Amino acid sequence: MTPAELSRTVLHAVRRAVDAGELSVTVPERAVVAPPGPGGCGDYATNIALQLARPAGQPPQRVAQLLRPYLVDADGVTDVVLTGPGFLNISLGGAAPAALVEEILGAGARYGYADGPDGRIVQLHCPHDVRAVVVAEAAARILRSQGALVRATAEAFDAEWTAVLGVRLDGVGPAPESLPVNVRPVPAPADPLPLGRDAARWALLHPAAHDRPRIGDEHLVQRESNPLFRVRYAHARTRALARNAADLGFGAHPGPVTGPQDLVAALADHPRVLAAAATHRAPDRLARHLVTVADAALPFLATVLPRGGEKPSAAHRARLALAEAAGTVLAGGLTLLGIDAPDHL
Question: How far apart are CA 287 and CA 185, in angstroms?
Fold first, then answer.
């Protein structure tokens, strides 16, 4: 399908939604389709939902949700993924976009980061509380990844929080009158330090700030019921696949991959998640996103290497590249949370 044909397909989807009474707009004369931008996925993307939102009197994401079934139903379209404020990302032929994989592998752990400082100056100040300190530090890391200049301080600070949890802030002491405490999550019900650095940080960061965290051995168990284990295991599996592929004499090369649209969508959504986590000072958004990426990646990882007497092919190299992209996102996200991403688990 050519871009011109796809543009007509998008307009036909709008017309069908109007005819069905789901949208009350004048069908535009043209719909712009173009390769997806940063954070997008699929073969083409269109901003038609943003274009129609104001005349429709509905949010862009709602317009995109209304149009998606009509686009998915069109001949030649295999999947449509919503990203950002309401972009419709259209896949033709079921291929995972090589451009997205290339972007992730090219950026490495900095995928989703801002290009440079954006002029924002953010001051975070928290009480003498271990969870608040860990959340403030992680929020500062994420804000810096999005171009902000950040100073994170606490009213008081225990030395063992650095020794055990690796927490470091920019200052300790009473805040100026102009800077009240602005990071105050629900405190942990028990001392998290016995869990060790990684499990304790995850236990404090994974729940939303208004939720009371669980402090228990469930964060240490090495099984699928533990979200932290799934995230770190998925990352370790991607590294093991790269080693095994090297033993078989082939490496990663981005290309079309059929099937894992949930994984592609999660990887494409990573920049948006980082931006939202920074805006809302909410490291929990990033933690939960990493679980989404891991849960989408794990079933796919079993399909990467050749089986039996298969010879490595372009398809295997493309699948390996997508797996490495997933591992890159998982490692980068864990690093922002101050948690190790081991290659072996």
Answer: 16
| Contact (Cβ atoms closer than 8 angstroms) between residue 227 and residue 291 | yes
- The owner of tokens 């922002």 is 336
CB 172 within 8 A of CB 105: no
**DSSP secondary structure string, 166-196?**
----SEESPPPTT------PPPPSS--GGG-
Q: CB within 8 A of 78, min separation 6: which ones?
A: 91, 92, 93, 94
259 token code pair: 């099937």
Distance CA 342, CA 338 (A): 13
Is residue 45 within a helix (H) or strand (E), and if so which, with residue range? strand 44-46
- Three-state DSSP at 82 gives strand
Q: Which amino acid is at 317?
A: R
- Indicate yes or no: pTM above 0.90: no
Checking if the pLDDT of 104 tops 90, the result is yes
Q: Does residue 298 contact residue 237 with C-beta atoms inside 8 Å? A: yes
Mean pLDDT of the chain: 92
Those residues whose C-beta lies under 8 Å from the C-beta of residue 198, and which sit 6 or more positions away, are 228, 339, 340
Lowest mean pLDDT among 72-76, 164-168, 331-335: 72-76
How many whole angstroms separate alpha carbon 182 and alpha carbon 192?
A: 22
Question: Is residue 95 within 8 Å of 260, Cβ to Cβ?
Answer: no
* DSSP summary character for residue 97: P
In terms of DSSP bridges, do strands 171-172 and 149-154 run parallel, antiparallel, or are they unpaired? parallel
Cα gap 300→183, rounded to integer Å: 38
The one-letter amino acid at 51? Q
Q: Parallel, antiparallel, or unpaired: how do β-strands 149-154 and 79-83 relate? A: unpaired
Please give the angle made by the CA atoms of 330, 332 and 337, to the nearest 5 degrees. Answer: 95
166 is written with which tokens? 């690796």
pLDDT digits (tens, 9 = 90+) for 285-301: 999 999 999 999 999 99
Judged by DSSP in three states, 235 sits in helix
Residues 73/58, Cβ–Cβ less than 8 Å? no
Q: How many CB atoms lie within 10 A of CB 159?
A: 7
Place of tokens 């696949």: 241
